[in-house]
UniProtKB/TrEMBL annotation, chains A, B, C, D, E, F:
GO terms for molecular function: ATP binding; kinase activity. InterPro entries: PfkB_Carbo_kinase (IPR050306), PfkB_dom (IPR011611), Ribokinase-like (IPR029056). Transmembrane segments: none annotated. Gene3D superfamilies: 3.40.1190.20. This is Sugar kinase. Belongs to the carbohydrate kinase PfkB family. Pfam families: PfkB. It comes from Iocasia fonsfrigidae. SUPFAM superfamilies: Ribokinase-like. Residues 1-300 form the Carbohydrate kinase PfkB domain. Keywords: ATP-binding, Kinase, Nucleotide-binding, Transferase.
């Protein structure tokens, strides 16, 4: 049974082969993307078993998403293929100057029909961590109920819940997002927000430790606040500090947070302390941004070791 | 003001660069496709002015669709760009042995919100023909109402209505489709069904003239029944016969019926009789199937003349 | 546990994106190909579980081959990833007029080091069929020993052995090939040769039944002799006849025999008689030749049913 | 009628899909490029109407150029399609270290046959600005006469003339270029030179204001001297100062000056003062360099506002 | 020294990666094409040495053309690289139904400035055949003079002249073309016209032998009249008959005549009689049409032997 | 006869069209690469004649490699095409953070069978320089013997030997590599190591001059120690100093050392002193890293002059 189980929607990503406004881009590459499967794949590459609970359309795109995730070694035995609803699709647009966007075609997608009944308690109970994001509750009310039920099951079975807010204002309105995300955060064990997400959820604060302390007061045992290239601020009830990031050439920032989560949970699975785990998380994030796909740049454990040892390609 | 006005949804077409099940196809080319704009573009290429009434999302894909259609010379002054709804998208799948498919992402698209209020009576009144298809009424009830209103306006202003059933069972159920299409057919002047559509609407009959006569009894003045490579059976209240088709190499049949409509209406605009118009329509259809896009293979008047004269490229 | 188990080498296929002599082709598409995994994937698509025993380099190409096959749903739990030897690679060349070729870079590849010790008796014993080809014994003497050992295990556990000669003169010399293939054929239950392979192995005969009878005298219970577009001649000890083929547009013949094997074994797994199984096999072969990859055109059970019922894409 | 009218040649641009010497580049993307239509498209994107006067071959490339420009919303009603002369074509070469080049195939192109008679006085008279460049007079003597005639018409109708020297030594010799450009500059209202062009035309001077003052003495009311990444020096008869530029990642500098012109004229059309207009112009230039095409990266008014407000893509 | 020397223009071919009107084609592949170098390359592939006399621009495209031809083994020691004139470029358009076209950008190209002084008498004198086409005299008067001078040199040195009319009405007017081609035909030893060219030059006749006899009366010793898929009619002063063609799948007919010439001259160089040589020529033509480039599908001697022996790719 | 002769293996390079782990890269571009032909091509571009001694498979890839090198103007008259052994192939993988790799498929390739008997003494004797690398001796013992024999011939004929260690640990073990490379270094006249290679061969030293002096004590007259972006340390028996490098944007470092060697030898051929030659070498290296292929970015003499003069593309 998988060490880490995730739950959420994964879509076909139509990734433009060129940068620029989509009106001018004429070729797209088919890939997949989903915050939760990014994390599952990332943990797998780092040597730990993972499983994914979801729904896909039983159309060609659903088969494609399934085969990629299965091919990456993630357990897909709990994925439901639904003949009546389509697999979600989205388009990326890579522009400069903060104008990049995504265009979703996921309304009433198969995954948006996930139900609490889809959850296999025994399956979840067998894991050490359940990883969730703030995207799923934004998809539909049955998705929200599913997330809540999954947290409930985890708690009853001593499975730790990690949570990445992953705020997406294209999916729901700000007020509702904030309210629900805060209610979920109160129920999780490990919280992995970005600093701008912390701003949005808690209001602007002065220092990373202010956000972390505030979140810890709300419930989570561990908070890993992502600070971009700076690194991350990591805290639990007793201690906290910044763990420095690694520099790399950013091609596409999407997936960096998921790589961070994968690295952090992998570290914890290996018994590392929160600061060591954060260093792995930071390194995984540095890898993640170097390619245009979501998870393709994630490191294997071998890559990570070579990177942390500063190995180079001389004389190969 | 345009000689022919059309009304309907045009989507971004993600066209696979290879044949085969979409799970294996990894690159897509962005194009546009819409039965009604296909007809409008086709008539334009044959030298007559056209206009298109629709709604598009005011997103990058909407801008793209608009610029392509405008670039083809179709009047788009009545197209509404809507900030709240997305432009529809669909994927083609080219397979062998009758297994080809399309995958629509058009539910709640901008065009599905078309309203009778979108129609500018003066604009429609200025045209000689209004061309409609059976796709639009399948999109939503407001779209159906818009089509009915457009027919009403046309009748009140002596604009002839041409209609292509374009049956799409992916969009509505068979019983409802049949009922509404038959009700619309009763109101139109020129009917352009395929023979299998005639089957579906009227039940299986023995001969092309049987379908044509039956349709004419229902209302239309002219029926042009498309028979595939054989050509077409053309009839009005007084006469009818098969007009032979032209052979060409089929790469993608999509758009052939639209080219036929474009050719037929162009012929009528030029004062040709229905059999001459059908010959042009058949020739346009023979061009249309030779490329994978919907309208790119449609002939210009120059192409058509060269083709009908049997001109070849020797000594160029 | 899988219903059918296969054994053999799968390589990265560098597939030219254009036809023509490779000196002029400048772009290649990375795919995978292997006769045995083609069969395993084909059976999977038709609804039955399969497993694959092999060795791959633990390099990027090995990871790729593994993920594709796993993604197709084939059990890869018995595949060994070897750090010391590379994954095999080959290039296809599509030319006209019978000049097409392949260029192998598979000498001393990971798979050529397969050993009898790699075989898990319990795993093989759990299956209903073991499928082998004449390629594996050509790779190395340890591969030949592995094939012989696998047959032995199958026999001891009442697993039926099916065998496709798949003669490759690029891999071994004619005399040795003939001698070893004939020795293996004596040990198998189901033999699936092409008619030219039968020629080469038995000498030229007059009629399909002559070859079939001769082979059956040698050992196999069932012989399915592939006759190209004509179909296949199917026989067991009591009966035999030609089962007609289906016509389709051939783009790349590679994989057709593997699709045939997949269809035939699927038919048998479903309890069909040999002639019914051959009809499925013929249909699968008709699908297989329609795309440039090896297995991408193989039908799903859904495709196969639609095809056999003559379903078309009208009104989609 | 358009607010801004331009006049000049637009060609098909064969844009290499890779950097490097063209002998090694094997794929090209078809686009369009023309300094004047770049400006017209740029102004259109910023919300103002534009028109373009030119000649194109009535060949496939001419149809393509026409449809792109029409699709961008530029009025092309005064473009003449000529059956006897070809549409111009050019190839870009992207190299490092200042070695980039273009290769023109535009001698005796359709546009080089533009005549003063092509000009519709009423059309030009209806505009607020006429934008011209130093490329057109270099194409042929009839093109020079056409430019002179257009200026004459503008002056007689109180249409302000803006002028970008756009020096191209591939098109004419230095001495002749200098003489004619200086004679034209004396007749224009708004001058938009680059600083190296100012050097070439006036001789090396110490400070931006020296060039500006000298030009203003020659005739123009407004001079906007482009200083690259530094920004621009803007002056009229009474005042002058540097307006700082914006930083962005340069992929292809071609089109930056045209974006500047588009931004500057848009600002003036909106009643902004010259320094505000220059800020818009600088921002438009910062967008322009970020993609390999000429105008594809130009901002819409929406983009510009988001950029100037510092909006980012967080939480989309 | 080369056995066969040719003379003429070779251009960069921008070959569309898709069929269809060029207005819609968006990617082009850079290749080279020139009737005379096609022949030179073809003869080289069949095992005989060749040389090419021409002029190229000393720009990137000229370097490219030179390197491809040199890379094919053709002697280019007499090619002049000119800094003042550009290398010619042309675009192919693949359409159906006889509407395919080429678009030349070769006016005042480097090759159009070829001069009689460019010819090295000793070089030409050393060859066994001089191959010329009717394209070169159409390029400019100096090119015509160069062709006439080359023929003169050949005659004085007992070098046989072969000539392919290659009529191109895009390059000159019909009357002038006919007059000059007929004057050249009177001076050549081997004439290789297509049957439609014979029509155009001699007027319509009943039978192939009528054309051949008429040409032989005019001067040539050998006439090889190309009849398309039928094959060719071959005659000298004493005998004549049809040599049957080979069937193959036509993708692009361009280059077929050049392959024919290459095969025919190769046959003669090997001492074969005219009918044997024509069989080789027909086979080379059958290869040539199977790929979109001009010469890439031409056979090597190895290919040709395999083809004529009917070798297939079974068991590779 | 060539001024510089080289000896070694050149392979087909399958170059990924995207960065990232090869498991995810799906398209490859066919190019060629070989350290020695890189040098030969580079010297040719700088205006000096070169020749290459090697073996290639007489397969399509061998023909391709041969035609590219021949097309670049390198004399290939001594290259042996072998029907029994394949042309080597390798794949590049462009990753970030020092994780880039190559994957060789060159074991038992044609070139690995090079023999001392392949060497034509007269050919080598006619050159001014013989350039060798440390790759060839790693390929096989017969390759090592060939290199030793070539040095012997050079010495006997007063041809200077230049040598680039080009250490490749994928090809041999460290101890053997060090031993053989040091033994070869003792026999050469010009040594061109990278500073990390010097480390590996001599042990870590403090300053560039320490390495240079030590090497000069071993035998070579001239040592050019490559220091990356810093430039190079150049020394002979009497003098030595750092020659500063040029900055450029690195896309792919492969080939930089070969460009350096080409520039250095070109400088010496032109009678420049070692520091002037090193400046050319440094400049060539700065060009080389700017494109993904090995030699495509190498400068021509024209490029080099423009670069050294600081020419820019203004006003082209």
């Amino acid at each position: 049974m998988p060490e880490v189980i995730t739950l959420g929607e994964t879509m076909v990503l139509m990734n433009p082969t060129e940068a620029g406004p989509l009106r001018y881009v004429d070729r797209f590459k088919k890939q997949i993307a989903g915050a939760e499967t990014n994390v599952a794949i990332g943990i797998n590459k780092l040597g730990h078993s993972t499983g994914w609970i979801s729904r896909l359309g039983s159309d060609e795109f659903g088969q494609y998403v399934l085969s990629v995730i299965k091919g990456e070694g993630v357990d897909t035995s709990r994925v439901i293929m639904d003949v009546d609803t389509p697999t979600g699709v989205f388009f990326k647009e890579r522009r400069i100057l903060g104008l990049s966007q995504v265009y979703y075609y996921r309304r009433q997608s198969a995954a948006s029909y996930m139900l609490p009944e889809d959850l296999d308690e025994e399956y979840i109970a067998s894991a050490r961590y359940l990883h969730l994001t703030g995207i799923t509750p934004a998809l539909s009310s049955s998705c929200l109920a599913t997330v809540q039920q999954a947290i409930e099951i985890a708690h009853q079975n001593n499975v730790l819940v990690s949570f990445d807010p992953n705020i997406r204002f294209k999916l729901w309105d700000r007020r509702k997002a904030k309210e629900i995300l805060l209610s979920l955060i109160r129920e999780v064990d490990i919280l992995l927000p970005g600093v701008k997400e912390a701003d949005m959820l808690l209001g602007k604060m002065d220092e990373p430790e202010d956000y972390a302390q505030k979140f810890i007061e709300m419930g989570p045992e561990i908070v890993a606040l992502k600070l971009g290239k700076t690194g991350s601020y990591i805290a639990d009830k007793e201690k906290g500090r910044i763990v420095e990031g690694f520099s790399s050439t950013e091609v596409d920032a999407a997936g960096a947070g998921d790589a961070f989560a994968a690295g952090f949970l992998s570290g914890l699975l290996e018994g590392k302390d929160i600061f060591e785990a954060a260093m792995i998380a930071n390194a995984a994030g540095a890898f993640a941004v170097t390619l245009p796909g979501d998870y393709e740049a994630f490191p294997t454990s071998q890559d990570l070791n070579a990177f942390l040892k500063g190995n180079s390609d001389i004389f190969r």
